[in-house]
């Protein structure tokens, strides 16, 4: 009897069993992922929170393009590992952000995904239990819920996007995004930025290569076609229209800082020549402080003096800041031993310093405005 094409593809066919024995040789397990649409339905964004998201996006885009002469400040913990402590931080930051709003647009850094140099805890979405239990659906739910709570305070939030599927679960709540140093060269992340709905800050590469970030801004501004996961959780082919609001974040490198006036001006020139917004953000942490949180105030002090003196290409600052200064090591499975409000990834300045540094930046903007007001 003749055999139809569908019959030849059945599970018992020699071709299928050959394929099965060749595939998934290194997949240890597979679990279902909640569809993005379902999570958004379970944890919806209301109209007042949506207005905060839009305000943050518009402000960030206008500051980076120079239409708005304030500074953008992306401020918060290196990573969120305890949502209650992160929310307490947000309750302190929100009134300060409102008070300084004429000079500084404050966006809270709420990072759930950590790119690791080698190995380590990869963030709250990947492992919300901090114990290697990898309850990813719970991580996504906790992340979305925290973002909604923070935005409901009237405070816009910023996240790093690392996994290309994760944005589907949270991007409607995010006003500013980042592509990190380790992924600035990555085509996958440039494609992702081209379709994201908010301004994206792209870091210079870990070795200090700024052109990698400038190239990423250029690639992200273009349209791309690529595969991803849709609202229903099914794979799909996406065509993006390109993101005109991407910009460079200078974060220093293993060779030292790169927030000096010459590097900022050179980066702004490269961006302008390529037809992109010229505003540059400076990350006061990472390579610019040698990961020593006590040096972040030195970076901010230098930037504030330059802003006050009229330097225009500095569009904003990133601070790694939490309730308690410094950092601590996480021992997997022993979260109860952690000091509340202290980072388990990179070291942060504490709340008192954060408040001082934001006021210093606001003062610098007031001086810059005064010197340019006719
Ligand atoms: O911002 C956080 C860290 O610098 C980044 O995730 C790399 O961390 P690691 O070098 O400790 O892995
Ligand atoms: C990982 C980060 O920074 P970078 O990509 O600059 O190392 C970060 O800002 O959390």
Give the tags.
single chain, 374 residues, alpha/beta, TIM Barrel, eight-stranded parallel barrel, two-stranded antiparallel ribbon, 12 helices, 10 strands, 38% helix, globular, disordered N terminus, binds erythose-4-phosphate, binds phosphoenolpyruvate
What's the SSE blueprint?
Blueprint: H1 5-8, H2 14-22, H3 36-42, H4 47-65, E1 71-76, H5 83-99, E2 104-109, H6 136-151, E3 157-160, H7 167-170, E4 176-179, H8 187-195, E5 200-203, H9 211-220, E6 225-229, E7 235-239, E8 247-252, H10 261-273, E9 280-287, H11 296-308, E10 314-320, H12 351-372
Parallel strand pairs: 1-2, 1-10, 2-3, 3-4, 4-5, 5-8, 8-9, 9-10
Antiparallel strand pairs: 6-7
Helix pairs in contact: 5-6, 8-9, 11-12
The protein binds erythose-4-phosphate and phosphoenolpyruvate.
Short description:
38% of the residues lie in helices and 15% in strands. With 374 residues, it is an alpha/beta fold. The chain has an 8-stranded parallel β-barrel, surrounded by 8 helices.
How would you portray this structure in words?
The structure is a single chain. By secondary structure, the protein is of the alpha/beta class. The protein is 38% helix and 15% strand. Residues 1-10 have low confidence and may be disordered. Strand 2, helix 6 and strand 3 form a beta-alpha-beta unit. The chain has an eight-stranded parallel β-barrel, surrounded by eight helices. It has one domain: TIM Barrel (Alpha-Beta Barrel), CATH 3.20.20.70. Helix 5 (83-99) runs parallel beside helix 6, helix 8 packs across helix 9 and helix 11 (296-308) packs parallel to helix 12. The structure holds erythose-4-phosphate and phosphoenolpyruvate (PEP). Residues 78, 111, 115, 160, 180-182, 203, 251, 286 line the site of phosphoenolpyruvate. One of its GO terms (molecular function) is 3-deoxy-7-phosphoheptulonate synthase activity. Keywords: Amino-acid biosynthesis, Aromatic amino acid biosynthesis, Transferase.
């Amino acid at each position: 009897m003749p055999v139809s094409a569908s019959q030849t593809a059945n599970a018992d066919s020699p071709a299928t069993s050959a394929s099965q024995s060749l595939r998934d040789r290194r997949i240890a397990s597979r679990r279902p992922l909640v569809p993005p649409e379902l999570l958004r339905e379970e944890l919806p964004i209301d109209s007042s929170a949506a207005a905060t998201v839009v305000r943050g996006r518009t402000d960030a885009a206008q500051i980076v393009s120079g239409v708005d002469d304030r500074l953008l400040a992306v401020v918060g913990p290196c990573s969120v590992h305890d949502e209650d402590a992160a929310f307490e931080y947000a309750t302190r930051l929100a009134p300060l952000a409102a008070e300084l709003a004429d000079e500084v647009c404050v966006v809270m850094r709420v990072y759930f995904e950590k790119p690791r140099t080698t190995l380590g805890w990869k963030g709250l979405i990947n492992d919300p239990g901090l114990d290697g239990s990898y309850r990813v659906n719970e991580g996504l739910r906790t992340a979305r819920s925290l973002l909604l709570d923070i935005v409901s305070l009237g405070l816009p939030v910023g996240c790093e996007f690392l996994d290309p599927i994760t944005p589907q679960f949270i991007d409607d709540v995010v006003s500013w995004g980042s592509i990190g140093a380790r992924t600035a060269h990555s085509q996958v992340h440039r494609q992702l930025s081209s379709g994201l709905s908010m301004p994206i800050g792209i870091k210079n590469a870990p070795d200090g290569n700024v052109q990698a970030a400038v190239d990423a801004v250029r690639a992200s501004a273009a349209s791309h076609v690529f595969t991803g996961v849709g609202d229903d959780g099914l794979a799909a082919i996406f065509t993006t229209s390109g993101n005109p609001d991407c910009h460079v974040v200078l974060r220093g490198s293993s060779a030292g800082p790169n927030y000096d006036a010459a590097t900022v001006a050179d980066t702004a020139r490269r961006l302008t020549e390529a037809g992109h917004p010229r505003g540059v953000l400076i990350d006061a942490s990472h390579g610019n402080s040698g990961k020593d949180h006590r040096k972040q105030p030195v970076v901010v002090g230098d930037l504030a003096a330059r802003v006050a003196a009229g330097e225009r290409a500095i569009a904003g600052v990133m601070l790694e800041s939490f309730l308690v200064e410094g950092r601590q090591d996480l021992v997997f499975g022993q979260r109860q031993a952690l000091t509340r409000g202290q980072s388990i990834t990179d070291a942060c300045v504490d709340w008192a310093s954060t408040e001082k540094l934001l006021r210093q930046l606001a003062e610098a903007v007031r001086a810059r405005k005064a010197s340019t007001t006719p």
